[in-house]
Structures are given as structure tokens and as C-alpha cells.
């Protein structure tokens, strides 16, 4: 390990020879870059040693494909994992700079949208920590989803340029660029032996340029990579366009190819957005498959043994084209028999499903496939034909299976069903919580479960304790290390030993003091950024996640409206409470954006009303991202996990909050069920209908009667939406009012009364501070099974065939 003096010398050297700067003229941003480059050198030593060991031991390699990796900031995380945090901190301070200001200079890596990307980031951390030969594969988006700004109480989207073009963490490998064919057409033909030999002709070329982000496991022993591909223009113009003298069009097409990695998730409401998004998904898998076959060729020439050395995990449906691209390479380039190629593909690929919502299961128009990926469409047709023939032969008395299992949706515009493709082409399909995995087999794809029950399994999500406890909550981490030793960082089951301390009032008071410090820190940050003063002694009730109707931020703010009206109209008083919201709405999701506006309008009204002073505060924190979550989560008293039962696949914020000592108010949905089982039902504020009751309610069509027959308090809160109380224009929130009273698919009003009662109980319990923090300690103690290390061990042994 380098000494403090060596770190200082390296930082000065990086300033001079990499950044062309002297220490005297360096800014905080310059010091950040110099320190990151210094650290990267140590990571590279670990990387080369890791690859040497993995090659010598012939380790089976896992390729994790995801359209999102929401990494957040990396400097502190990497310093912690290599064991240099304290040395680097002292070195920077001896150079005359504030270490906290230096770390704050780093922008969050904008490579994801929400839970999918945060989960992927946890997983690659755990893979390295567990010494698994693995690499993540994604796209190096120049711009993230968007930067969220709140103007006039509304979400406004701005470009999120996260400095991807000069991130010190990314190592470009231009010499390894890949040529990716796209477009063109198929010409029928035969080979010299008379076999069908389709020729993919007149395709254009996309250029994939790999960039490696080093992923260091805790302790620094294993350094894996996250490989991100950017799109570049090919060195040559389209000769046909150029020869026609259309120079400007030739140049514009080169520029268009570079746009593929410009932005995460282009709007797909219009045709150009659909085309770009499908191109992105193909670009990711085509680049990754080239890396896979290149890596494999270094260790074996027997392509039929590929599944013994390679595992591919598809994180949601976005990379499902990996199945088709693998078949194309094996059949067209390696000239394997179809059945042999299909066996290799199925044994290699596995698929994680992340949604229960039919509308979220990807489909792509066949016409778009014909335009962009004509050879891949041919292969999908062949997969479908052979698969349905097998089904028809095995179950001749069940012809209805063919329509539901087909890889094509035939109603209306013909489309490719990506989830069906992912299931058919994989040897394992997993959900991400026990309830979610059950619902996949019972309601989402029951016919697939009927024909191949052995494929389906569960791997409940987890989060990395390195970032979400050790880094995000250093005060709590110090307490845990003092009580348990440092082993809890890689063995979270050791938290169980805290249970015996729950009756020690001194220990509980220490937990209370840690929570107060975290709340005070968040209050200072909010005061500095938004000019709002919050009371750290109040209960902090937080809901931070992507804004969506099924996550029911609307239920939360309706209850806030109810509480406000109880104070100003009914004369009730309540103990101090702060309601914090954060999250982004998709730019085209009008209802979600309207819910954000409602939250902000309510906050404006509540916070400016002198009658609520000292009782009720509401705040929406803009531009939610990983680094903001790291401040909110350790400061939370009550965690809002209130999605409609049967809609949330798992959730991971529920785990992060509970791991940091927040009690949960939630429904029987996703991983909430397993968290409640772990922490004890007495430490979980359960409310609402379960998934079966929700389905029964929907089928009965009784939502209107609920609104009309419910108690006056609920009706008063709903009517307030169109009363002009929160906006002089009474029509602004009419769409929300109409949704609640005429449909309410996500059952806000069905669960409102139960939610209100649970909130009242939580507020009453919070007044008993010693008992509350005793329960908080028990939450922490029982969260060991929600480490992503446990999750990855399950994937490795049960799906990838890695380890014991």
C-alpha cells in the first residue's frame, strides 16, 4: 500500500504530466482528477493480477448485460474498497485541500434511470468482492436520462452531461474497436453443398469503441471491469451516397451513427425514437458478443464447449437480442448446425425479469426489425417455428398455447415479443423477490411455466453494504465495526449479533444519536441548496424513487393533504413531521409529471401556512440520484414502500432504508414481504390489500363506490384537488381527480384508510424515542440477508454454474 507521501507525490505528478498543471494553480476539480488517476494506477495493478490469476485457474466468466449501470460517484467508493480512504484524505488535506470538497466535485455517472441501474451497480460490486470472474457490459451514454429542475413547481428536463468524454475512470480502447453491421437486406442463396445460405447484404457499419471502468472488490484483491461501448463513425463514407455527389448526406450519416450512444432511453413515442432505442439494444449485444467470442478464443478453439467457460446474464428484456446475435454468429460465422448452436445458446444465457406489468414487457414492430436487423428477424422466425412445432407435438390437445408462447404478437401491428424471446432462449428465468417470482409463473407467463417449470427460479435482490452502509452512513459503520469487528462489511449476517444489544439503553441511545447526526447533516444540505430550514427532531418520512402511479406517491401526498386539512380545518395538532419526496418522471409520462407538480404545490401551501409551523413540512428534492440518496437514506425515520400489491417486482430502496435503521410503512408487495418476515411484523407498518384482494377488487369494478361511500375525511382530501386550494386554476389537477374517482387502477382509495391508520400508529410510536430506536436497531440487525453478496452467491451457484 502506498504511503501518504507517495500519494501526495503521485497527485502532484498527475497534475503536472497528465493535466499540465502546477499544484498552485489547481482547482478542486483538478485535484479530484489527479487523485482519481493516482488511484486508477493502483487499480490497474490489481486488474492485471486478477486477469493473470483468472486465466491460470481457467475461471468461468460471467458477462452481465444491462442497459443501465447507475454507479453514482466513484472516488470514495474506490478508495474504500482498495483500503486507501484515510491515507488519501490525509494526503489531500496536507496538500492544502478539503477532502470533502474534492469528492463533491465528482458528478454522478449518468448511466441509468432508476432501480435497474442501481441494482446492476450493486451486483458488479459484489461480483468483484466475491472474487467472481465477471464483467458488466453497457453503453457509455454521453448524456444521462436528464437533469431534473423544478420550475414553477413543475419538472423541467435539462441535459445531464456527466463529463463522460473525460471521466478519469474510463479507459478507452480504440485499438479494440468493433464493426457492427446494421440495415441492408437478405439475399437467398445456397452454399457449395446445397444448404440454405442467406446473405446479409448492403449493411451499414456502426463502430463500437470499448471503454473500461475498473470495478474493485472490497479489500482490493479482485479488480473486474464494467465495459461500456460508445458509438463512433466508421472511417469510410457510404460509397454509394458519396459517389452520387451527396457529400453532406454522407457526412450526416456518419454523425448519426455517433448519436447511438448520446442519450439514455430516447423517447420512443415517435418512430425515430423507437429506431434509436432498438439500435442501442442491438449495439450493446453485438459489441458484447464480439468481446465474448474474442475472450473465449484466447482459451479454447472448441466452440461447442463455450457454456463451460461462459455465462451470460440478461438484466431485463433490453439485451434479449444477445440470444439472436449468438445464434447468428454460431450459425453464420462458425457454420454450426442449428440444433448444436441452439443448445449452446440456451446453456449460456439466463434472463432476469424485472416487471409484472404487461405494458412494460418490450415488443418491437416487425417492420422495424426488417429495416434494421433483417438477418436477426429471420433467425427469430426460425426459433419461433421450431419452438412452436415442439410445443404442438408435445401438447396437441392444447392449441391455445401456441398464441401465448409465440415470439410474435399477431394482433394489430405484428411485433416481436422480447420477453418470450428471452425466456425461450435461456436455461434459467428468475424473478427478483419471492412474490414476484410466484406471480411471474402464475399470472405473467403461466403457459411458459406450464411447459418448462424447471426454468423458473427466484433470486431476491440485495444491495451492497459497502456503498449503502459503509460509505453512505459512516457514523453507523463506525458503530458496527466497534461492536462486530470489520467482518460485517463482507458478511452482513454478522449484523444478527446486534440483537443482544437491543435491550442496552446506552447502545440504543447511540443509535438515536447517529440518526440525529445524519438528519442534521441532511438539514444542512437542504438549507444550503434549497434555502429551507427543517427540524431534525421531527419525524423524517421519506419516499424517494422513480415517479409512477403504481409506486403511489399520489397516495402519500393525498395523506399529507388530509393531515394538512386536519390541522387547518379541524383544529387538530400533531407532533412535528417532515415529508420528503424525490424522484424523476419520464419526460412523456404526463400523469407522473402532474403528480410532481401536485407535491410541489402542496408543499408551497403547507410550508407557507403559519398554522402548520412546527407540525408539518413538505419538500420535493430535485434531481434525485445516487449521491443524493446517500444523504437521504441514513437520515430517514419512516421509509415509504407503498406500491400497490402485485406491482413492484422487488424494490431495493426498501432494503437500503431498513439497513440504515428506518422503519418501513408498506404493502405486501415485492421484497417488502421478505423484509417484514426478517425484521418482524411488529417492526413493520403494514397496510393495504394484498395482491389477490387487489385483483378481486379490480375485477369487481368497485372503485367508484369506494370513493362515494368512504369517510368524509378521504372525500375531503380528494375534493381539495379541484377546490383551488393548491392552485387557483381548478382544472390543473382534474386528470388526477378523474383518475381517482373514475378508475383508480392502482387502488389509492381502496388502501387510503388503512394507510392513514398505519401512519397514525407510526407517528404515535415515534414519540417513544427509546422504543423507536430499539426497533430501528432490530431492523439493522435483521437485514443481513439483503446484501447483494447473498444474491450474487445465489446466481453463481444456481444459474451460472460458478463456485460450489
| CATH topology tier name of the domain at 539-784 | Rossmann fold
Largest sheet entry: 10 strands, mixed
Helix/strand/pairing category: alpha/beta
- The CATH class label of the domain at 539-784 is Alpha Beta
The number of helical runs is 33
List unreliable stretches of 5+ residues: none
Specify the helix fraction band.
Answer: 40-55%
What does this structure look like?
This protein has 33 helices and 23 strands. By secondary structure, it is of the alpha/beta class. The chain has a domain at 539-784: 3-Layer(aba) Sandwich (Rossmann fold). The strands form five sheets. Strands 1, 2, 5, 6, 9, 10, 11, 12, 16 and 17 form a ten-stranded mixed sheet that branches. A hairpin with a 5-residue loop joins strand 14 (408-409) and strand 15. Helix 2 crosses helix 3. The longest helix is centred in the N-terminal third of the chain and has 29 residues, at 28-56. The model has no long low-confidence stretch (mean pLDDT 93).
Quick recap of the structure?
By secondary structure, this protein is of the alpha/beta class.
List its salient traits:
Pyridoxal_P_attach_site; ten-stranded mixed sheet; Alpha-1,4 glucan phosphorylase; transferase; globular; 804 residues; 14% strand; 23 strands; alpha/beta; glycosyltransferase; six-stranded parallel sheet; 33 helices; Rossmann fold
